[in-house]
Specification:
- By secondary structure, this protein is an all-alpha fold.
- The protein contains 12 helices and no strands.
- The two termini are 37 Å apart.
Length: 248
């Protein structure tokens, strides 16, 4: 592609200066109540209990759920992120035993993560016994689970399995814990009739897309939102992790 031609084409587009652009934005009506609901939705779904309480006090926007339920959900998520999967299972069963009883794939993924943690800790014999007793029956009942089980069992073949550069190193990466934690978090939210994902990041992604479309027709002050929409790894048991977060 001829970059010079592309640059020349862009420079020929009509331009909106910053003052005009800001003035137009100021003229756009903003529903403060709807904006507050978006912010509260984000804080609650992502599990920022303290921030949600502070925002409620400042804005008067009520929380859609009891914030104690948010704290309980974050304890479950934090347990998975720290590798204590059995505690997470016990906690979620205390919240609602039907969550795991009715979601065999989630239950399988949690037990698969337990197997990974045993392998990570070098408990090879215990890992093999656990796989035989707990995971093999699930694999026999659900054939679709077998490829994932076989992949994790293959960790036992590699002497350098703890090396992040090994072929299966991604299974031992913190992001794998976070993915399982996010799956469990979504299931808890669904059981409480809440949205599984916050709406605010999706709206910002839509804004990024609209900016890209508009930039083909006019030059304007472009907001760089890409860095604010990057996934943030958060291993804090009291906060959210593994999902899209935004910088302040």
């Amino acid at each position: 592609m001829d970059t010079s031609a592309s640059a020349a084409g862009a420079s020929s587009l009509p331009k909106i200066d910053l003052d005009t652009w800001t003035s137009k934005l100021d003229d756009v009506p903003v529903n403060r109540s709807q904006l507050n609901k978006l912010i509260m939705d984000y804080l609650v779904v992502e599990g920022y209990k303290d921030a949600a309480e502070h925002f409620q006090n400042e804005s008067g926007e009520p929380t859609p759920v009891n914030l104690d339920a948010v704290q309980s959900r974050m304890k479950v998520r934090g347990a998975v992120q720290s590798g204590d999967v059995q505690t997470a299972i016990d906690l979620v069963n205390d919240l609602n035993p039907e969550i795991l009883d009715t979601n065999s794939r989630l239950y399988f993924h949690l037990n698969l993560q337990r197997l990974i943690e045993l392998i990570r800790g070098g408990n090879i014999e215990q890992a093999m016994e656990f796989a035989q007793a707990e995971l093999a029956p699930l694999g026999e009942e659900h054939a679709a689970f077998l490829p994932e089980l076989e992949e994790v069992m293959a960790l036992l073949v590699f002497s350098d399995r703890l090396d992040s550069k090994s072929p299966l190193g991604h299974l031992l990466d913190a992001t794998h814990r976070q993915n399982v934690a996010s799956e469990l978090n979504a299931a808890i939210l669904a059981s409480q009739s809440q949205e599984r994902e916050p709406r605010l990041p999706s709206l910002l992604k839509f804004l990024v897309w609209m900016q890209a479309k508009l930039s083909g027709h006019v030059r304007f002050p472009n907001m760089d939102l890409h860095a604010r929409l990057q996934p943030v790894a958060d291993e804090n048991a009291g906060g959210a992790g593994g999902s899209t977060q935004m910088e302040a």
